[in-house]
Design goal:
By secondary structure, this protein is an all-alpha fold. Helix content is 68%, strand content 1%. It has 10 helices and 2 strands. The chain has helices spanning 21-45, 51-72, 77-89, 91-109, 120-145, 152-189, 194-223, 236-256, 259-262, 273-280; strands at residues 114-115, 118-119. It has a two-stranded antiparallel ribbon. Helix 4 packs parallel to helix 6. The N and C termini lie far apart (72 Å).
Length: 301
């Protein structure tokens, strides 16, 4: 049997198992394809906020490119550190995109552009800020734990910080789902039109993406539940099945059901700060159409 190149220099290699070069190439290509799709769709539908999902897909692509580089240069620390950090933080950008899409759905498919008394644009802002908190915690933990020659106590501390970060991320997802279900029930009470049917379909995509993110979070919590002595990282099949594959499916779902297709045109985007002030000063009796290619007409509250 041919010797594993990544383990040829056992004293200096960054790998603790023999990684699959083919699998890394495959996922690099698949993530690159969905990245290209999202770039094209952002241009076609003219949705500037889609840069967030593009970044998520791009980070996954770069992650696997550096994984290939690391496999081919097993004694080099830099590629190993880069792919290790990127694979841990990239899904947070998909999570943020879900929050951004939901805010725009509230704006487009409710008569008041509010959910639980929160204006649509603030709804997005609040949840994106919460996601940033989780992102910073995970980035700090992953960066601290990265590197094959990092001291054991520092790695353990980094793992604990990272686990706290993904725990926060999951808590924010549960809070988001509570409000999303409230929005969902409101949609079901509306007269069913082709537009509400499209909205429900997109909402189910958001649910699916969050389910896939949750699967990935549970996997990471289980993986590091034994600290740095866990044997799970030595079996890359788990990572592909419970991390990379779910995140790939989430990205592809947004390719298939792109929010720009369901909420098209400039009028579906959030109003500018100046426009919001104008709407706030307008009397409720006057009313104004804020809607988006949909049937609802909103009145400022």
């Amino acid at each position: 049997m041919a010797q594993c190149a990544a383990l040829a220099d056992e004293d200096n290699t960054t790998w603790t198992f023999c990684p699959s070069t083919g699998a890394a190439y495959l996922f690099a290509i698949l993530f690159a394809l969905t990245t290209a799709g999202h770039v094209a769709q952002a241009i076609i539908y003219r949705k500037g906020y889609s840069w967030v999902i593009i970044v998520s897909a791009l980070l996954q692509t770069v992650n696997y490119i550096f994984r290939v580089v690391s496999i081919k240069n097993p004694t080099s620390d830099a590629p190993a550190i880069i792919w290790f950090v990127l694979i841990l933080i990239a899904p947070l950008w998909t999570n943020a995109y879900v929050y951004m899409v939901m805010g725009r759905m509230v704006y487009n498919f409710t008569s008041t552009a509010k959910l639980a008394g929160i204006k649509a644009w603030r709804f997005t802002l609040y949840f994106v800020l919460l996601d940033i908190v989780a992102f910073l915690a995970q980035l700090a933990g992953a960066s601290s734990a990265a590197g094959p020659h990092t001291p054991r106590d520092q790695v353990l501390r980094g793992v604990h910080i990272y686990m706290g970060g993904i725990g926060l991320q999951q808590a924010f997802i549960f809070l988001f789902l509570f409000l999303a279900i409230k929005f969902h029930r409101g949609l079901l009470r509306e007269a069913q039109t082709s537009k509400t049917s499209q909205a429900l379909r997109l909402l189910y995509v958001l649910y699916a993406a969050l389910f896939l993110i949750t699967v990935r979070i549970i996997f990471r919590l289980v993986e590091y539940s034994d600290g740095i002595d866990s044997t799970i990282p030595n079996h890359e099949a788990y990572q592909y099945c419970f991390d990379s594959l779910p995140m790939l499916v989430a990205l592809v779902l947004f390719n298939i059901y792109h929010p720009g297709k369901i909420m098209p045109g400039k009028e579906s985007d959030f109003p500018s700060r100046k426009e919001r002030k104008r709407l706030a000063n307008q009397s409720p009796e006057t009313g104004i159409a804020l809607s988006t290619g949909g049937d609802a007409v909103k009145t400022p509250a």
